[in-house]
Amino acid sequence: MIRVLELLTTNAPGGGPRQVYDLVRHLPAEEFEVAVAGPRDGAFFERFHDLGLAVAEVRANRLRPWPLVATLRLVRDLGIQVIHSHGKGAGLYGRLAARWTGVPAVHTFHGIHHEGYPPPLAKLYLGLERRLARWTRTIINVSATQEAEALALRLFEPRQSVTVVNGVDLDAQERVVAAAPIPRERFGLGRDLFVLGTVARFDPVKRLDTLVGALRALERPRVSLLLVGGGAETDRLQRLVAAAHLDGRVIFAGWLDDPARVYPALDLYVTASAKEGLPLALLEAMGAGLAVVATDVPGHRDVVRDGETGLLVPAGDEQALAAAIETLMDDPERRRRMGQAGRERVLKEFGIRAMVERTAEVYRAAAARTPRATGT
C-alpha cells in the first residue's frame, strides 16, 4: 500500500481542488491510501471528508511556521511515502517537509501566475520555485504549453517534468446533469434569449470584465451572460455591470453544486482568461457538447482547436471576442458541429482514466525510489 498525502493551498471551488477530488476518487483503493490536508476554506474540505479519507486542516495558504509543523506531523504520524503538493503555499510546505523527512515530493503546477506581481516579488517567487524544485522528485504539468513556459523560466530540469493533462469524468457528469439539470428559468432567463455562460473563480486572471465588455460591444438586446462562481472580484464586477447598464443581462449565479448542471441552459460557453493551466470547466463545457469562444492563451490552446471545436481570440480584446460570439450566434449549425467535435475530443484526449493512471505511475515511481536531488 502506497500512502500519499495530497496537500492543497485551498479547498475553495476551482480547478486544483476539483482535480484532486477526481483523482482520489478514482485511484485504486487496493494500492493507494490517500490523506488530504489543506485549509478549511471551501466546500471541498467536507467533500474529501465525505469520501471517507483522512482529512486534516493545514493552513497552507498562510506564510507561518505552523503549517510546516502540521505537515511534518502528518507525514510522520501517517507514515506518508509520497507528498503531492498543489499550489504555491502547499508547494512550499510540502517540499520543505519532504526535504526534512526524506519523503519523495511531487508538485503540480495548476497554472503559473507571476505576471501580476511587482518585479521584485516576481523575481523572488521564481527564485524560490527554482530552489524548491531541487527538493522535488517529479513536477507535474497539466498541459504542454504550461510545461514549455515553466522550462523557459527554468523552474525545474526537463528530466523532472511529466505532463499529465487534466481529465474529466463525462459519465459521472452526465448522470448528475440528467438527474438535476438547472433550467435557465431559474435565473430569470427566457427561452427567446441567447445565453452565454462561464464557470470560474472570480479572480483577476480570469478577466471576467472582458466578457462584460464583449456583451456591451455586441449591441444585441436578446443576449445574456450567466456568470457561475464567486470570489474577490465579485463586487468590482457588479459595479462594472451597473456602470455599463447591463443589469438584468448579466446574471451572477454564485457557486453551484456540480456547476455542469447549468450547461443545458447555455447556448455558447465563453472564457476570457489571461492565462490557464488546463481549465476543467472548459473541458466539461465541451464535453457537454457546447461550442466555445476562448482567449488564445496557454491552457486554452491545449484544449480548443480553433475553427474546429471553437474559436480563439486575442486576450483582452473585447471587440474580437464580441465578433467571434456574433459569428457563432448567427450560425447554429456551425455551433452544433463545433460542440460535437469538442465532445469527441474530450472523450478521446481528456478522460479521467488516463489522468488517474498517469498520476498513479508517478506515485509508484516516487515510492519505489529515494528522492532525486538536483542540488543542495
What would your notes on this structure say?
It contains 14 helices and 13 strands. The two termini are 31 Å apart. Strands 3-2-1-4-5-6-7 form a seven-stranded parallel beta sheet, with helices on both faces. It is of the alpha/beta class and 376 residues long.
Q: What is the element layout, followed by pairings?
A:
Layout: E1 2-8, H1 15-26, E2 32-38, H2 43-50, E3 54-57, H3 66-77, E4 82-86, H4 88-101, E5 105-109, H5 119-133, E6 138-141, H6 144-152, E7 161-163, H7 170-179, E8 194-201, H8 208-218, E9 223-230, H9 234-243, E10 250-254, E11 268-271, H10 280-287, E12 292-295, H11 300-303, E13 310-313, H12 318-329, H13 332-349, H14 352-368
Parallel strand pairs: 1-2, 1-4, 2-3, 4-5, 5-6, 6-7, 8-9, 8-11, 9-10, 11-12, 12-13
Helix pairs in contact: 1-14, 3-4, 8-12, 10-13
Look at the structure and give the mean pLDDT: 94
Question: Alpha-carbon distance between the termini?
Answer: 31 Å
Number of strands: 13
Low-confidence stretches: 370-376
- Using only C-alpha atoms, the radius of gyration works out to 21 Å
The general outline is globular
Number of helices: 14
Largest sheet: 7 strands, parallel
Strand content: 15-25%
Helix content: 40-55%
Briefly note the structural class of the backbone: alpha/beta
The H-and-E topology, N to C, reads as: EHEHEHEHEHEHEHEHEHEEHEHEHHH
**Looking across the biggest beta sheet, what order are the strands in?**
3-2-1-4-5-6-7
